[in-house]
């Protein structure tokens, strides 16, 4: 009986405690809304930039070959060094060509002597003809001999010039300034020169300036042409549009050049258009054959809204931001994003300049729920900002934000 009464008392006590706990839970205050950083999107004028993979090539490349044949006598450069235009590179044995010059000089002296003799004979023949002593036929013969002697002297002069030129060609000199390759022929070898199959001695490639080639697809080419026609962006055929370049081990695009050529037709095999930029290269950092990343203006200048990437969420294939409404509640807004500039992301569609966006604490807020606001300002990383390729001020109408239509892009 006592045990039964004890169980009854414990049951009543447990029921009382449960009711008390439920009453305390009902009376506990609800959790406060999460605190989030909010800011209005940063509005500024930007230009989209297009990225391409490019290959660096020398402006000039020369295969150094001899113009005359002979045995290689000496080499006057170190493999791989920078040579100036006109520097002596190779010497081919000049003795046979020096002898040819001496022979041509002797022939010229003989031709000059014969010409002098025929001139004197022609003068005497003229006197004799005037006196009626010499026949017209003999006079014509001596006049012809004079012309032959004059032509022979001119031929001897040409032969001497050719011999001297061939003697000069025994010294092979650098035709351009640039970096020379290795010596391809050992001393003492017979060099074949003066023909398409002449012996290749070495190569030289120019270093400064240097060319960079890249290809744009057909759709991009059409877009660039449309923008040039509308005046939003000058064509690279007519304007030296800026180009930025970065190498494989470099952050960003530290090298700056300009467009200087666009091909006249698309390659039917690849459907691309070849374009070229030129860069100053005084320290020879850009080497022919290297791959590089290039970036050039991909749009005209337009006014854009910018947000940090941490303010943008992803829901399957859609990008969204959380905007705080007038009642202090977070509302999801689907947006269309663009490229990054100055460390911020361009918002092409879905956002207005006066919207209050949650820029930090996105994971704490839920759509439709209230939030506690902590106002902040969005700052652009100016050191990461791309340069303005169009410094001229555009009309105000061209800088208006068009939420319904994203800006077109051009090269």
Comma- or semicolon-separated keywords:
411 residues; alpha+beta; conserved putative lor/sdh protein from methanococcus maripaludis s2 fold; Elongation Factor Tu (Ef-tu), domain 3; OB fold (Dihydrolipoamide Acetyltransferase, E2P); 4 domains; 6-stranded antiparallel beta sheet; 6-stranded antiparallel beta barrel; 4 helices; 23 strands; 32% strand; elongated; disordered C terminus
Which term fits the overall shape?
A: elongated
- Domain count: the total is 4
Strand content: 25-35%
Strand order of the largest sheet: 2-17-21-20-19-18
CATH topology call of the largest domain: conserved putative lor/sdh protein from methanococcus maripaludis s2 fold
What helical percentage do the residues reach? Answer: 25-40%
Rg from Cα = 43 Å
Q: In terms of structural class, how would the helical and strand content be classed?
A: alpha+beta
**End-to-end CA span:** 98 Å
Task: Compute the number of strand runs.
Answer: 23
Annotation field: number of helices: 4
Compute the average pLDDT.
83
Please give the largest β-sheet: 6 strands, antiparallel
**Uncertain spans:** 24-28, 392-411
């Amino acid at each position: 009986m006592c045990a039964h009464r004890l169980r009854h008392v414990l049951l009543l006590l447990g029921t009382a405690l449960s009711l008390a706990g439920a009453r305390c839970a009902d009376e506990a205050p609800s959790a406060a809304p999460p605190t989030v950083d909010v800011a209005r999107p940063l509005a500024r004028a930007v230009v989209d930039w297009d990225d391409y993979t490019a290959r660096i090539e020398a402006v000039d490349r020369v295969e150094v070959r001899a113009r005359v044949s002979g045995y290689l006598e000496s080499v006057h450069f170190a493999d791989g060094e920078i040579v100036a235009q006109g520097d002596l590179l190779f010497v081919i044995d000049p003795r046979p060509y020096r002898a040819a010059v001496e022979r041509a000089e002797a022939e010229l002296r003989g031709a000059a002597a014969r010409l002098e003799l025929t001139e004197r004979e022609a003068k005497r023949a003229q006197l004799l003809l005037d006196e009626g002593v010499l026949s017209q036929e003999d006079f014509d013969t001596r006049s012809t001999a004079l012309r032959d002697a004059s032509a022979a002297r001119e031929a001897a002069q040409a032969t001497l010039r050719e011999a001297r030129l061939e003697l000069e060609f025994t010294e092979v000199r650098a035709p351009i300034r640039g970096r020379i390759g290795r010596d391809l022929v050992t001393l003492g070898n017979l060099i074949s020169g003066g023909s398409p199959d002449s012996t290749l001695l070495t190569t030289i490639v120019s270093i400064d300036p240097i060319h960079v080639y890249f290809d744009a697809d057909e759709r991009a080419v059409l877009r660039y042409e449309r923008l040039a026609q509308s005046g939003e962006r000058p064509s690279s055929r007519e304007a030296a549009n800026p180009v930025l370049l970065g190498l494989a081990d470099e952050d960003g695009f530290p090298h700056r050049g300009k467009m200087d050529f666009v091909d006249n037709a698309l390659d039917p095999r690849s459907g691309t258009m070849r374009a070229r930029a030129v860069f100053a290269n005084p320290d020879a950092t850009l080497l022919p054959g290297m791959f590089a990343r290039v970036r050039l203006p991909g749009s005209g200048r337009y006014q854009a809204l910018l947000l940090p990437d941490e303010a943008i969420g992803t829901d399957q294939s859609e990008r969204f931001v959380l905007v705080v409404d007038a009642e202090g509640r977070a509302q999801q807004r689907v947006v269309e994003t663009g490229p990054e500039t100055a460390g911020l992301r361009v918002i092409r569609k879905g956002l207005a300049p006066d919207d209050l966006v949650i820029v930090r604490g996105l994971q704490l807020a839920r759509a439709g729920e209230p939030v506690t606001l902590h106002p902040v300002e969005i700052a652009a990383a100016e050191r990461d900002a791309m340069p303005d390729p169009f410094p001229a001020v555009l009309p105000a109408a061209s800088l208006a934000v068009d939420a319904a239509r994203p800006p077109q892009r051009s090269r």
